[in-house]
Design goal:
Shape of chain A: globular
Radius of gyration of chain A: 19 Å
Order of helices and strands of chain A: EEEHEEHEHHHEHEHEEHH
Number of strands of chain B: 0
Strand content of chain A: 15-25%
Largest sheet of chain A: 6 strands, mixed
Distance between the termini of chain A: 42 Å
Strand order of the largest sheet of chain A: 6-7-8-3-9-10
Bound molecules: adenosine-5'-triphosphate, magnesium ion
Radius of gyration of chain B: 26 Å
Number of helices of chain B: 14
Structural class of chain A: alpha/beta
Structural class of chain B: mainly alpha
Oligomer: heterodimer
Distance between the termini of chain B: 56 Å
Number of strands of chain A: 10
Largest sheet of chain B: none
Strand content of chain B: under 5%
Helix content of chain A: 25-40%
Shape of chain B: globular
Chain lengths: ~270, ~350
């Protein structure tokens, strides 16, 4: 398994206290000069600087292949970084991705994928309770109650005992959101959560994410939904060819983008 | 009068269908006629032989031997009760689960694992019963015991090897790959002979292992290689995104394997694994050539009795029927399992 890399000793750099989370960092993500080079030598990210504050909603946009997915996948250790500095919830990530650190981060960072990625052999309810029971080792009965409440929240409580294949795409994606929320994350990552959905299902999923933003969840959302970005984002980050080209408030970005590449991109999607 | 016009469309339809299916063209007609003559002739000869020429005494007066082997007659109830338990378990498993109390349904997998140790206890000694040496075990009972033992050993071993084969430790990977390729490259009969000779060499000083256990070990080691390949196929069919989802939820590599990968891989591999189980049953017959008196072995020893001189055909037809019945039973059990898992939503 790719994730079974040998744990490397974490450098005792002083800024790694027992549990950084208890300190409640205001900065949820801090990346400086971040480089990502894939094993085949392709450099997907070059010197990316990005900071995400607590409670902030950051929307990442950019053409296909610009490195949006790669960037947010480094935030929960699905991709290692080859250069620069990355800190998530006070934990440092590096080229080796210390297994202990990564698993701690993953317990506090939820991720939602374009293709839902629900577990087909588990019921909706089991999909949601899996991680709390096995990762957080919480009591089954409480977990079940909480999971049902979460499913109620995203509007699929009635389907709790069905299996993923019996649900529509929009419903599956809302289950995926509930599954990520079941770990009470402090940061939610969304990778094009509505791109695989029929147009009429997009709205229900965006509504769910919007509600989450209203509750103050810190989120990084890769999406091309301009309406959503305008209303919900605190900041829009535009990427191209593995770098951040422009970073601005939604109003500024959508009405008067500074960079030529942003203008070109917006002229295509607006 | 009113009847005939109403019934005729139906019978005409049937006639039409027969005509279209069997006599559509001159060539079709020819093929149909030739096949009918050949099959009819064959069946006629078979019936003629079975009812007029065959002497079924070789089967009928040896039923006990075919089922229980040379098990001491005074203790034979033990052999029958195990066969009975096994049969009951099959019936329970095949019954629609809504007819059974939920407790029983949930206990079924455990019962299937326990049926082998129960059999060993009942047949060997345990429970304060008079010990019966394994050389008295035989017949269908021994074949089933060998089959169950092989499956219960090779399935977990196969799963472990499938996992080891994609381990990040090169040595482990090479060893398992080498082992699997070696086993798949050898004829089973050779593995069985090796097993009888080699296994004692690996045992600590003063230990012995009876022939039945040695046979199960060899069969198990052999089948495990095939099972490992089937499980590996199942593992490979799982999309990468499933693993990413599991990892982003914080599941450790071990939990990911146990909760996400294996359940899906085993479902995919189930038809292939079921096939291997049926093959295991048929493979036990090779042990007749190593002197075990399982179903084929006991039949050969019956045929060696001068009373039954030349009654090979009767015996082998009877054997074919028995093996066939057991295999049908096994495939229906497998299909039953497949259906249960399908109901629990999969793709
Ligand atoms: N495992 C990999 N090995 C090599 N190159 C990769 C790998 N994964 C992604 N890439 C490359 O990295 C670049 C960035 O990919 P990424 O998936 O982050 O783009 P994206 O912005 O999310 O695009 P999209 O909008 O199509 O999802 C692409 O050129 C892609 O081909
Ligand atoms: Mg992407």
């Amino acid at each position: 398994m790719a994730s079974s890399t040998a744990p490397s000793p974490q450098p005792a750099s002083g800024d790694q206290p027992g549990d950084p989370l208890s300190a409640g960092p205001e900065l949820v993500v801090r990346s400086q000069g971040l480089d990502k080079i894939f094993p085949n030598g392709f450099q997907a990210l070059t010197k990316v600087d990005l900071a995400v504050d607590k409670g902030e909603v950051v929307v990442i946009m950019g053409p296909s292949g610009s490195g949006k997915s790669t960037l947010i996948r480094t935030f929960n250790g699905l991709e290692t970084i080859q250069g620069g500095h990355l800190e998530v919830l006070g934990y440092h990530l590096d080229a080796d991705n210390n297994q202990k650190v990564v698993s701690k981060i993953r317990r506090h960072v939820g991720m939602v994928f374009q293709s839902f990625n629900l577990f087909p052999h588990l019921s909706i309810l089991e999909n949601v309770t899996l991680a709390p029971v096995w990762v957080q080792k919480r009591d089954r009965q409480t977990v079940k109650k909480d999971a049902l409440a979460l499913l109620d929240h995203v509007g699929i409580r009635e389907q709790a005992h069905k299996y993923p294949s019996q649900l529509s795409g929009g419903q599956q994606q809302r289950v995926a959101i509930a599954r990520a929320l079941a770990l009470s994350p402090q940061l939610m990552l969304f990778d094009e959560p509505t791109s695989a959905l029929d147009p009429e299902k997009v709205k229900e999923v965006l509504e769910t994410i919007r509600a989450l933003a209203a509750e103050g969840m810190t989120m990084v959302v890769v999406t091309h939904e301009v309406g959503f970005a305008r209303e919900v984002a605190d900041r829009v980050v535009f990427m191209d060819e593995g770098t951040i080209v422009e970073e601005a408030s939604p109003q500024t970005f959508f009405t008067e983008p500074k960079e030529e590449r942003s203008q070109l991109f917006l002229s295509r999607i607006l | 009068m009113a009847e005939s016009p109403r019934s005729s469309p139906r019978s005409r339809q049937l006639l039409l269908r027969i005509r279209r299916g069997l006599f559509a063209s001159p060539l079709d007609t020819l093929i149909t006629v030739v096949l009918a003559v050949v099959c009819g002739g064959g069946l006629w000869n078979l019936f003629h032989w079975a009812f007029l020429q065959a002497d079924w005494a070789v089967v009928l007066s040896n039923v006990r031997l075919y089922f229980n082997g040379n098990f001491p007659v005074s203790q034979i109830w033990r052999s029958w009760s195990w066969l009975g338990l096994l049969g009951a378990l099959c019936i329970l498993t095949l019954m629609p689960s809504r007819l059974l109390p939920p407790v029983v349904v949930r206990l079924l997998p455990l019962l299937w694992v326990l049926i082998l140790p129960i059999g060993l206890l009942l047949l060997a000694s345990g429970l304060g019963l008079e010990p019966v040496k394994s050389r008295f075990w035989g017949g269908l009972q021994l074949s089933l015991l060998l089959t169950l033992g092989t499956i219960l050993m090779s399935l977990p071993l196969g799963i472990l090897m499938a996992l080891a084969r994609r381990s990040s430790l090169p040595l482990l990977r090479w060893l398992t790959t080498g082992y699997i390729e070696l086993m798949r490259g050898m004829p089973l009969i050779a593995v069985l002979f090796f097993g009888q000779l080699m296994i004692p060499l690996f045992l600590p000083e003063g230990w012995t292992l009876n022939r039945v256990l040695r046979a199960v070990l060899s069969l198990g080691f052999f089948m495990a290689a095939y099972m490992a390949e089937d499980v590996r196929g199942g593992l490979q069919s799982i999309p990468k995104t499933q693993l990413e989802a599991a990892r982003s939820l914080g599941l450790s590599p071990l939990l990911t394997v146990a909760l996400v990968e294996l359940p899906q891989a085993l479902r995919t591999a189930l038809p292939a694994l079921a096939n291997q189980c049926v093959a295991s049953m048929q493979n036990t017959s090779l042990l007749a050539y190593l002197g075990l008196i399982e179903l084929l072995g006991i039949s050969r020893s019956i045929l060696a009795n001068p009373d039954y001189l030349g009654r090979h055909l009767e015996v082998y037809i009877w054997l074919a029927l028995l093996y066939w019945a057991v295999c049908i039973l096994m495939t229906s059990l497998a299909r039953r399992l497949e259906r249960t898992l399908k109901v629990n939503g999969h793709h």
